[in-house]
Design a protein that fits this description.
Length: 259
């Protein structure tokens, strides 16, 4: 490295970068009309909130067991339904399987459309259509899982070894036979890994779906926040954190074993 390329001799470049970042920050504050003075003027309320939040109501934990089980059931069932639908669609989304670019293009367009809808917006729409309840949460998770897992799956299919496909085409195998006997064995472990990853993500997502009435422990969290019973909010958050940590650890080990 030359001496002129050191930080000491390029200090003006770093200074200009800092000035630009500060200008962008100030511009963002102006256009969003953010008032940071309120953060300091409401410091007393922050102290009260944190003081109550730091004293969780452990006696309320027994009432969280049933909603927590429902949340896990929603995640598991929604993940299963989403993966079941994702598997055939992911095969159709790549010309490696179909041999037809038009069919694959349509499937990819549908997947792109599904993935553009945020989970909370999707849950809110389904609640408006089907009403409040766990069934709506399961359907939301299933659609979200379908969009995410299908994308990962068909990308995995496109990275496989093509020699088994060529061999089966040479003996006159159909596209369905090729998919089952030449492609599926190569991607099975990845599909299973993606399924467990989706379940891990859905456990976290399902706790938030209660905010729009999609069922599970999120409903209790939302009502506790609305009633400002922060001691209950604290134990609910701790329960969610421990549950997510356990599910993440189990999912990580399973995916490691399948890799």
């Amino acid at each position: 490295m030359k001496i002129k390329e050191t930080v000491h001799f390029n200090w003006y470049k770093h200074l200009m970068t800092l000035v630009v970042l500060l200008m962008l920050f100030q511009f963002s504050v102006v256009i969003t009309e953010a008032d940071f003075q309120k953060v300091f003027t409401n410091s007393d309320q922050i102290v009260v909130f944190l003081s109550r939040l730091m004293h969780p109501d452990f006696g309320y934990f027994s009432k969280l067991i049933t909603p927590l089980i429902k949340t896990l059931q929603m995640s598991l069932l929604g993940t299963f339904l989403g993966v079941v639908v994702a598997i055939p669609v992911s095969f159709l989304a790549t010309p490696v399987v179909t041999g037809n670019n038009f069919v694959s293009m349509i499937c990819r367009f549908i997947l792109s459309l599904v993935r553009t809808i945020p989970t909370l917006l999707l849950a809110a729409l389904l609640v408006a259509i089907f009403g409040i309840g766990e069934a709506t949460g399961v359907l939301t998770i299933a659609i979200f899982t379908f969009g995410m897992v299908s994308q990962l799956m068909f990308q995995s299919i496109e990275t496989i070894d093509f020699e088994p496909i060529e061999a089966q085409l040479a003996v006159g195998a159909t596209r369905t036979q090729i998919a089952v006997w030449a492609i599926a064995p190569q991607v099975f472990s990845q599909f299973a890994s993606y399924s467990f990853y989706a379940f891990e993500v859905n456990v976290r997502a399902s706790t938030v779906l209660g905010y729009v009435g999609a069922g599970g422990i999120g409903v209790i969290l939302n009502s506790s926040l609305a009633l400002m019973t922060y001691e209950r909010v604290s134990i609910i958050i701790l329960t969610i954190l421990v549950t997510v940590a356990i599910v993440d650890k189990i999912s990580e080990r399973v995916r490691g074993a399948l890799a």
